[in-house]
Design goal:
The chain is mainly alpha-helical. Helix content is 61%, strand content 6%. The chain folds into 5 domains: 118 residues, Cobalt-precorrin-4 Transmethylase, domain 1; 91 residues, Helix Hairpins, CATH 1.10.287; 32 residues, no CATH class; 68 residues, MazG-like (Helix Hairpins), CATH 1.10.287.1080; 46 residues. It has a 5-stranded parallel sheet, sandwiched between helices. The protein is elongated, with a radius of gyration of 29 Å. The termini are far apart.
């Protein structure tokens, strides 16, 4: 009798959402190939007595999307024994490659059965089900609507028509920082709005490229999705990771195999020079540390900081402006390294310090104004006293 291939829906990916029917169908066969199943789901199935055959599908993402090469390669591995194929969601709605697979199995005389699962529609519902009420006279729009809005802006708005990739760079940077501000202020309303402004910049750049025939927003989405699937085999494949360190190790290894890596001559290449100095420094230190170039203990960084401060003092005594700038940079770079060793985002810590200074200084200004004076009228001792008061009341 021909072997049986049972194609079983696994639901959206949460073990709690695997239906009893799907679980029993998998147990009845006993062994299965899972396509893009999260590690937690794979472990759950194994705990329920299902033997998972790993590495039977070379590229699960291509298989699911209906690559004839991937499907034919899989069919060629069949050994005549019954096998289940676990597919995220419902095979009838979430497995684009199903028709090709069924035809390929029919050609080799293999029987097939379909077992539905909970559809993955719940995962994509967020893009069609807004949570925030719109103001009066407003309407709901979809992703295709947004692309159409951008295209019309480019053809009818004089300002939008004038823009280029280069002219939009300041806006892209500004919107990114405004998103960060909204996050740090814990303002969901502002975050929603600022993410929209940032998304506009992405859609704008894609529209400019579309007009030049270079790429479209669809290429951006395809490129990003494929990259994320490729770099997360522990989520979309059968790879297993024990901790975050192994995730990073896999990430760097997979990045090194991509075409863009061929253009880089150093592990430090690819970090944008336009990043803030603290952020770029910490990213370089992170990458260097992954090669083993790192202090074995935080005491080494602390000693280095003392050494760099002493060198700065020496440059200051010699009144050498160039050396002062260089040594001050070394001090700051070492402080960033200390932040990294402590698990602190140096750029974020600096922003926090800036905000704290702003609160305290504006408190001093208001206090002086209430007294009918200006800060410039205060003596140094009075300013110190006012500063200490600000530290207590405007922490």
């Amino acid at each position: 009798m021909p072997s049986l291939i049972r194609i079983v829906g696994l639901g959206p990916g949460d073990p709690d959402l695997v239906t009893l029917g799907s679980l029993e169908a998998l147990r009845a066969v006993g062994r299965a190939v899972t396509l893009l199943a999260p590690p937690e789901l794979a472990l759950f199935l194994e705990s329920e007595g299902v033997t998972l055959l790993r590495d039977r599908v070379a590229d699960a993402a291509l298989f699911v999307r209906g690559s004839s090469d991937a499907i034919d390669a899989f069919v060629a591995t069949l050994d005549g024994a019954d096998l289940a194929i676990g597919v995220l969601g419902n095979p009838l709605s979430d497995f684009p490659g199903l028709p090709l697979l069924l035809r390929a199995l029919e050609r080799v005389g293999t029987r097939t059965e379909l077992v539905p699962g909970m559809p993955r529609a719940t995962l994509s519902a967020a893009i069609a089900m807004p949570l925030v009420p719109l103001p009066p006279m407003s309407a709901h729009y979809t992703w295709p609507d947004l692309i159409e809005v951008m295209a019309r802006l480019r053809t009818t708005c004089p300002w939008d028509r004038e823009q280029t990739h280069e002219s939009l760079v300041p806006y892209l940077i500004e919107e990114s920082y405004e998103v960060a501000d909204a996050i740090e202020e814990h303002s969901d309303g502002d975050l929603c709005e600022e993410l929209g402004d940032l998304l506009l910049q992405i859609v704008f750049h894609a529209q400019l490229a579309t007009e030049r025939g270079k790429f479209s927003i669809a290429d951006v989405v395809d490129g990003l999705s494929n990259k994320m699937i490729r770099r997360h085999p522990h989520v979309f494949g059968d790879a297993a990771v024990a901790n975050v360190a192994e995730v990073w190790q896999n990430w760097e290894q997979l990045k090194s195999l991509e075409p863009s890596a061929a253009k880089r001559t150093s592990r430090l290449d690819g970090i944008p020079r336009g990043l803030g100095g603290l952020q770029r420094g910490q990213k370089m230190q992170d990458k260097a540390a992954r090669t083993g170039f790192d202090w074995p203990h935080i005491d080494g960084i602390r000693a280095k900081l003392v050494e760099e401060v002493a060198e700065l003092e020496e440059a200051r005594r010699e009144n050498d402006p160039r050396a002062i700038r260089e040594e001050l940079g070394d001090v700051i770079f070492t402080v960033v390294n200390l932040a990294r060793a402590l698990g602190v985002d140096a750029e974020g810590a600096m922003r926090d310090a800036n905000d704290k200074f702003y609160r305290r200084f504006t408190f001093m200004e208001r206090r002086a104004e209430n007294e009918g004076r200006k800060l410039g009228d205060y003596s140094l001792d009075e300013l110190e006293e006012l500063w200490q008061l600000a530290k207590m009341q405007a922490a």
